[in-house]
Amino acid sequence: MKVLVIEDNPSVCSMLEMFFSKEGIVGEFVHNGVEWYERFKGNEWDLLILDWMLPGMDGVSLCRKIREEKSSIPIIMLTAKDSESDQVFGLEMGADDYVTKPFSPL
């Protein structure tokens, strides 16, 4: 499995990288909303994990752009925005699931 993670928090990236390594998952990490597109378009991904609050371009805008391009890649929003209205909005913008921080990778 090949996963693209767009997340600006280094500790979250480190935790996910350790979890992926144990599970045999190939993970690549982008730390802002600007450089994601080049990495996304140049590869075949099985899953996208996307933070909402990113420098450069927010995760909701990224999610919407991906869906406008008719990509059906599964998208998990991983964010500290934990209100019910935020969750509904994230799902309405095209996310397939919504996980709030802090979280357990298990």
Please provide a written account of the structure:
This protein has 106 residues and is α/β, with parallel strands linked by helices. It is built from 4 helices and 5 strands, in the order βαβαβαβαβ. The chain has helices at 10-23, 36-41, 59-68, 84-92, and strands at residues 2-6, 26-30, 47-50, 75-79, 97-100. The model has no long low-confidence stretch (mean pLDDT 91).
SS field, number of helical segments: 4
Strand pairing plus helix content: what structural class? alpha/beta
| Beta-strand content | 15-25%
What's the N-to-C terminus distance?
17 Å
| Mean pLDDT score | 91
Helix content: 25-40%
Q: What labels would you give this structure?
A:
106 residues; alpha/beta; 5-stranded parallel sheet; globular
Topology (SSEs and partners):
Elements: E1 2-6, H1 10-23, E2 26-30, H2 36-41, E3 47-50, H3 59-68, E4 75-79, H4 84-92, E5 97-100
Parallel strand pairs: 1-2, 1-3, 3-4, 4-5
Compose a concise summary of this entry.
With 106 residues, the protein is of the alpha/beta class. The chain has helices at 10-23, 36-41, 59-68, 84-92; strands at residues 2-6, 26-30, 47-50, 75-79, 97-100.
